Amino acid sequence: MSTADIRPAIDAALVRRLVDAQFPRWAGSPLELLDPAGSDHVIYRLGEELTVRLPRHSGAIGQARKEFEWLPRLAAHLPLAVPTPVGVGEPGFGYPWPWAVSRWLEGEVATVEALADSSEAAVELAEFLTALQRFAPEERPALEGREDLVIRPLADRDRATRAAIAKVGGVFDAAAMTELWDAALSAPGWGRPPVWVHGDFHTGNLLVDGGRLSAVIDFGGLGIGDPACDLMIAFTLMSARSRAVFRAALGVDDATWTRGRGWALATGLNAYTYYAAVDPRVAVQTTRQITEALIG
Question: Which of 41, 68, 201, 203 could, after both became Cys, cross-link 85 (CB 3.0–4.6 A)?
Answer without folding.
Answer: 68
